Amino acid sequence: MRYFYFPGCTLETKAVGFNRSAKEAAGALGVELVTLPEWNCCGATFPLSTDNVLDLAGPARNLVSTAEAGGDTLAVACATCFNVLRRTNHFLRKHPDTLEKLNAFLERPQPYAGQVEVRHLLDIFVHDVGLEAIRRRAVPGLGGLRVAAYYGCMLLRPADEIALDDPERPGIMDALLAALGAEVVDYPHRGECCGAYLTVKSPEASMPMSYRILSAAGRAGAQVLATACPLCQFNLDWLQARLRQQYASYQPLPVMYFTQLMGLAFGLDPAGYGFEQHYVDPRPALAQAGVLGGIRSP
Amino acid sequence: MRVTISVEQVRSEWVRRIEEVSGQDVMACYHCGKCSAGCPAAEAMDLLPNQIIRLVQLGQVERALESQTIWYCAACQTCYARCPKGVDLPRLMEALRELAMQKRGDHLEIARLDVQALAEFPQQAFIAGFRKYTT
Ligand code: SF4
Ligand code: SF4
Ligand code: SF4
Ligand code: SF4
User: For each successive 10 residues of chain B (135 residues), what is the average pLDDT?
Assistant: First the structure.
């Protein structure tokens, strides 16, 4: 299986561990991710005003590039990039007038006709590779590590455009993690917003949002929380660095990318997964559960 | 507080522009409150999301633009997912933010950001923040 792959700017800079683990985990499943030539930033937000056509040009250019390179699918790891690219594609398919304008603006030899499918890696792993094949490959597995799958907004809404999972009761990441040998915990707030970009100007507003999610997952017994978005990862992780300073008794909950957990479950070498860059280092929790670098305690 | 509501205000150019930019019919909202009940950012807001719609319905656009609520909306889409009338509230919030910035200038001054935090943020936080808080 071979797909064009859109890394996005955060995965090439702050979230290199996500990028690396995504590619390696895919490789272990026989999925080859070919980085889209000359990809460009998606803009990080889908423009919500009807007169903002220009902000669609960035994400649209990636779709055109995929089509030009002969691809029919663009695979994405970052939940936010996925959301922006997928919504843009959906919008262009529904608005031929806008598509025509953008084609004229982009001046590429082949006009884009909406033929590319934007897909998240979760979708590709669960539906193209299949849970059974993942289960077979999951040696040494996650040994019952208790994981809270966190979806946030971007993988879920708006549901008619994203169409990956049930927005009120999502389960695709849970299914993947369970196939890896994790014990997934049931908890509320799995699809609630972590505060997103509010953190830039108003951390006092985003922190309670992140805290609600962390405490719900913690109360449900999670040892680790899994995400697919570098901004969720940051918000949920960074907040805990502050909580630890303030409250000596605070029990931190490591926030990991689901692909890092895949790599560990497949027994891949996690060097380069960037664990040391997390504010809450996941390694002690992983070691305690006997899951680290394929080395399982007896 | 005494509020005067007039036909002129309800049918004002501002209301028309907000409806055009957001692509929403504000009168579609019947104030069930579902959006406000599920909004994860509500506790930071001075007005609830459906109160913002109410103000626009009544032509009180200035008051909607003065509210901090439009800046605390994280565009998470939860309200839109649950609205029984299909009102796309995140689009309405975006239209109000744009209008507020056209009148008063950008909401975010780069020089006033916390420098220590700046070094920590992932790129997408900045890009999204600047897209939402600047024109
Ligand atoms: S969503 Fe963010 S990480 Fe992804 S390409 Fe856009 S700006 Fe970069
Ligand atoms: S929870 Fe926040 S950061 Fe995560 S996907 Fe949603 S908006 Fe983005
Ligand atoms: S959920 Fe919809 S109809 Fe109900 S108050 Fe909110 S916008 Fe209005
Ligand atoms: S999109 Fe905005 S108003 Fe709607 S639920 Fe999310 S934060 Fe609240």
Answer: 88 96 98 98 98 97 97 98 98 97 92 83 90 91
